[in-house]
Each structure stands twice: as C-alpha cells, then as structure tokens.
Amino acid sequence: MKLLLLLTSAIALPSFAAGGGDLSITDTVGISFWLVTAAMLAATVFFFVERDQVSAKWKTSLTVAGLITGIAFWHYLYMRGVWVDTGATPTVFRYIDWLLTVPLQMVEFYLILAACTSVAGSLFKKLLGGSLVMLGFGFMGEAGMMNVTLAFAIGMAGWLYMIQVLYMGEGKAAVKTASPAVNSAYNAMMMIIVVGWAIYPLGYAAGYLMGDGSNIYAQNLNLVYNLADFVNKILFGLVIWHVAVKESSNA
After folding, report:
1. Cα angle vertex 106, ends 103, 108, to 5°?
2. Sign of the CA dihedral 41, 43, 46, 49?
3. Which percentage of the chain shows pLDDT scores above 90?
4. Where are the domains of the chain?
C-alpha cells in the first residue's frame, strides 16, 4: 500500500514533471539531469518502503535519507527544465536544494551515532555551522556577489572544518563506543564526505576558476554537479540503509 501511494503521488506531479523541452541526444548534460531525476525518485521510494524492514531506532534515519533524495528529486524537476529549455545553469534552484539536503546529511551523522551510542549535541551544531558556511560562500561566489576565488577558499574552509569535527572531534569520540556495523557505516559516510564531496569543488573550479563563462564551462559545471549529487545523496542513503538492516537483523 505504501509503495502504491508513493508511486501514485509521483504520477500525480504537476505538468512540469514531464516538461523540459525537446531533449537532444547530443545534450549530455540534459540527459544527466533526467537520469539523476529518475534515480532520486527511485531512491526515495526505496528508502521509505524499507523503513518497514528495520527496527524502530533506525526508522528516522531512513526517513531522513528518503527526504534527502525526495527534496533533490523535486528540485531536479525544475533544474532539468531550466537547462533543457534555456541552457542556463540553475544556480538558485541548486543551492536551495543543497541548503535543505546538506544539513539533513549532517543530521544523519548525528542520528546514526545516537541510535547506538551517546553523542554530544554540539556535534550537530558544528556540522550545521560548517555546512552553512560552505554553502553560503559557494552561492555568493557563483551568483557573482563576491570574488569567486575568495568565496571558494572560505567555502572550502567550512568543508575542512566539518571533516576535522568528524575525524578528530565529537564524531571520533562518539564512534569509539559504537558497534562494528556502525563504525563501518560511519567510515563509509566519512569517505563520501571526504572523497565524494570533493567532486563539488572540482565542478566549481571547472566552471568558475578555470572558466570564462562560456557554454562549455557551464556544461562541465553542471555535469560534475549532477554526478556529485547522484553519488553523494543516493550512496549516502544506501550506507545508512545497509547498517540499519544489518543492525536490525542482529537485534
């Protein structure tokens, strides 16, 4: 019944869900937008359905994983239309999406630890602060509100601060007392934050630091960002789903 309701809701989306102009077979970026849109919807349905397969303490984690991909799916409906119809970078839509989904990913770190061990409340506050610095200055750089190089440097500092908190601060202290399964998931999520999130500054650099504003650089920027969203949002949720199922089966 839950699966049926989710699929019915997806089918009943407004008419723009089927929009996006005439997608050309040579438009690699446009195709990537459509592929990521479909993948985000599929992941959202999967995470919400799988909530029934895990113990109560993991349900909130899977709910948040579904919210992350669901919010991304909704914004990709708009972003793909902007690109296919105009060829312009959907900067505002993308940062609205990140402003919602990145803090939710930080919530996931807290939830996955809180489900199995005690964790300081300051962990979430520090991760939230770092993510807002990263996103805020990234947006100001891309929107032309400040020097792109300076904005890039400050945004990178926010990202490195989050890594420090997770590797050396409250995150490291909390994971020491967690189960092997949670430790494994935590390490996998850390790899996503360190390696997977590194794709985003590569896209920023390709589009703004090494680019001249021409269409080829806009293509590179959006192709890299779409790849990063696909990997980081969906894989991030799958890591949580895996440990939730494993821990639930051992309970």
Report:
1. 120
2. negative
3. 37
4. 25-250
At CA 98, angle to CA 227 and CA 130, rounded to 5? 110
pLDDT in tens, 81-106: 899 888 889 999 999 999 999 988 88
Residue 84: left (phi > 0), alpha (psi -120 to 50), or beta? alpha
Task: With both helix axes pointing from N to C terminus, report the angle between 235-250 and 56-86 in degrees, rounded to the nearest 10.
Answer: 160
Average pLDDT over residues 98-125: 79
Residue 102 near residue 158, CB atoms below 8 Å = no
Residues 6 or more apart in contact with residue 154 via CB below 8 angstroms: 133, 137
* Architecture per CATH, 25-250: Up-down Bundle (1.20)
Whole-structure pTM value: 0.85
Residues whose CB is less than 8 angstroms from the CB of residue 106 and which lie 6 or more positions away in sequence, other chains included: 124, 127, 128, 131, 162
Cα(46)–Cα(51) distance, integer angstroms: 9
d(Cα 144, Cα 229) in Å, to the nearest integer? 23
The pLDDT of residue 44 is above 70:
yes
What's the mean pLDDT in 173-196?
74
- For residue 124, how many other CB atoms are within 10 A of its CB? 18
> Is the separation of the CB atoms in 231 and 199 below 8 Å?
yes
Answer yes or no: are the C-beta atoms of 218 and 88 closer than 8 Å: yes
Dist CA 97 CA 200 (whole Å): 14
- End-to-end, the C-alpha distance of the chain in Å comes to 27
